[in-house]
Amino acid sequence: MRIAIVNLGGNQGKTTLAVNLFSPRIPGAKILAVETINGAGNDLGIDVEKLRGEQFSRIYAELAAADDLILDVGASNIEDFLLGLERFEDGHDEVDLFVIPATPAKKERTEAVKTAVMLSDLGVEASRITFVFNRTQDVETDFGDVLNFAKKTGQVTANPDCFIPESELFSLLADKKLNISQALNDQTDWKSELKAARATDDKKGFQKAADMVAIQKMAKAMDRQLQYVFERLTAGAEG
């Protein structure tokens, strides 16, 4: 399956979705970051290839050659990427699903909607454009206007079940340069490490162990939610 994670704005969680939601569930899929500014997934413990939005011919070739690919389009390159989609006849045809992460602030909601409109105007069907509601505890309250837009226009799919709750897990993972798969596979007894650090008054070791205990305690539940979201996002999508 070939997925493009896009948004006109930054800090919406695109790379987090690429690394923690999609990569573990699409085995063998390369992550291609269309980015010039941010560190992309390399900072989250996973190999990522980088291209610029202006290199659309190469991006399209990568999509056409792949059965599975995760495209993480950074805000600094989204305009060049969309321009490439426009210049190529049906330039979007090699993407199975465009995923637009949206966060609750008004500016970010507006940018998410604008992204959906631009993709729709390029000829992408609503069934291939979908929102993921990020950093929220109540989709209906936080994204009521976005849900209404989707229902009224029919330009984009908006399933309120496709949400990722607000959690400090992802910031902790980023601080440790880890992804959720690495956290789930970590067999270290961090509670014992925590006690040992306290006994020796190792403040640095104590903080690291405390963070890792928190990561271990949050990762399983979050991974279940990510699996739930993935199944709903990809139901019926072609791969």
TrEMBL record:
InterPro entries: P-loop_NTPase, StbB-like. This is Plasmid stability protein StbB.
